[in-house]
Specification:
mainly alpha; about 85% helix; about 0% strand
Length: about 200
């Protein structure tokens, strides 16, 4: 869609340049335009307006896409931070040192954030890949918590691929997080650490 807009702007500029060169090079064309001032002014005004609208529209679309990219990246960073917290809580339950209620709360919060962030993340292919990995991690967390509930007290629990799922999520988040400034990334990371404490 963006390419079509730029092609239309270039086409309008080419038409304008063709008319200008034709007027400069051809005396008959120059006389024709001079004999019809209203037509000349109307065509010139419409061409200038068309070029202006098309170019400004493309620049605004580009700016909106960049801003949308930052919003998507921030949403992905927040979801990834909560995913890390939830995975740590579930891992501590597996290891026997964690609280099952806290792990369940962390998982529930993660899934709520994922539900809220999904509409923002689904529109972009890179963000959609991150969303798919985040949903996969949610499934792994749910299976792990269900296995914890079914296991006898004190029995050792396997991780059910939890570490691998969190690594896949982090690698899917990496291209999105590059859009954020280092200060923003650090702020989100600090917020995540504060909430863990």
């Amino acid at each position: 869609m963006r390419l079509i807009g730029w092609l239309a702007a270039v086409l309008a500029m080419l038409i304008t340049l063709t008319l200008v060169v034709g007027e400069l090079a051809d005396a008959g064309q120059r006389r024709w335009w001079a004999a019809r001032p209203l037509t000349t002014d109307t065509v010139a005004g419409l061409l200038v307006l068309l070029i202006t609208v098309l170019v400004v529209n493309q620049l605004l679309n580009r700016r909106q896409a960049r801003q949308r990219g930052h919003a998507v990246a921030a949403q992905a960073a927040i979801v990834a931070a909560q995913a890390t917290r939830a995975a740590r809580a579930v891992s501590s339950v597996i290891g026997g040192s964690g609280d099952r209620g806290a792990a369940s709360d962390g998982f529930r919060t993660y899934m709520m954030m994922l539900l809220i962030g999904a509409p923002v993340l689904i529109g972009d292919p890179v963000a959609r890949r991150f969303l798919e990995q985040a949903q996969y991690l949610g499934g792994v967390l749910a299976r792990t918590l269900a296995a914890v509930d079914r296991s006898p007290e004190g029995a050792a629990m396997p991780g059910h691929g939890l570490d691998e799922a969190i690594q896949q999520l982090q690698s899917a988040a990496a291209p999105l997080l590059q859009l954020l400034s280092p200060e923003t990334r650090d702020s989100i990371h600090r917020i995540g650490q504060t909430l863990e404490e």
